[in-house]
Amino acid sequence: MRHVIESQQFDRKSIDGLFAVADALEKKKDASMKGKIMASLFYEPSTRTRFSFESAMLRLGGNVITTENAKEFSSVSKGETLEDSIRVVNGYVDVIVLRHDEEGSSKRASLVSDVPVINAGDGSGQHPTQALLDLYTIRRELGKIDGLRIAFVGDLKHGRTIRSLSYLLGKYRNITIWFVSPKGLRVGEDIKEYLGRHDVSYSETEDLDAVVPEVDVLYQTRIQKERFKNAKEYSRFKGCYKIDMAVVKRMKRKSIIMHPLPRVDEIATEVDASPKAVYFKQARYGLLIRMALLKLVVGKK
Ligand code: CP
Fold it and tell me: Does the annotation mark 197 as catalytic?
């Protein structure tokens, strides 16, 4: 695997291999990126993805160069195209981690890049490394993925993490998905079409209460303020679903709450102390998965 652009690139075998590397990295030090340099090019804000990728590279003995606000602090502000920036950075590094506000930007970057490009989120497109760490979290916390019953909740129109995770779940057996959202924030037709083709049972509803006792995973998402045309449009949906202890008490005994984070107000902080709340653990698992991904794409060059 050269570039990591979308979840569809992965199959069960490659996912199992990646998870095995992540498991091993938790137990044993690894300096296989010594002498390698990673560029993190972030055109959109990030806490988890940027820091975990940078920490991953440093923990593997490599080095990092970075721009956290590429629109302002790189030559894009002077009118340089993404393609030209990627061509130039190619001469300095061994791998590029790219976050961009435009869907398809990582694919564009990969077409002009000799070094691997890793998609760290492209607008409302995909966030494949988040999906891999989400799947890893499910396997670690619940012990298996086949047979999973999961509800995606919130802004499913703009949420790239649920798009990427849906594609990965299509590789597994006997999966049931509920897409819980207001009508105006429904998941894209492309995802539903893909799930249909892969025999994944899914349904759409606005009724979170009815779904809560059914699921192994309640995957809550943020209403993505930055993707709305204006504040009025956003305010129509703000606060539409909130997970609090009343919701948690109605969940199955062995079930978990996930969230890609950042959280705004869609999970009450009182829930954080519940053993079902695994979202901060989920962010920590991201470090292992991103270390494993760097080994996969850079290590074999
Ligand atoms: N989950 C996620 O992508 O978080 P950041 O935006 O902080 O990277």
Answer: no
Residue 69 neighbours by CB under 8 Å, 6+ apart: 42, 43, 45
**Was domain 7-126+286-297 assigned CATH 3.40.50.1370?**
yes
Helix (H) or strand (E) holding 59: helix 48-59
Q: Give the architecture-level CATH label for domain 128-283.
A: 3-Layer(aba) Sandwich (3.40)
* Residue 99 annotated in active site: yes
Longest dimension (CA), the chain: 55
Query: Could you identify the atom of ligand 1 that is nearest to the CA of residue 127?
Result: 3
**If we measure between CA atoms, which residue out of 205, 139, 123, 130 comes closest to residue 162?**
130
pLDDT, tens digit, 9 for 90 and up, residues 49-79: 999 999 999 999 999 999 988 888 788 888 8
Q: Per the residue annotation, which of 28, 29, 78, 253 is the catalytic one?
A: 78
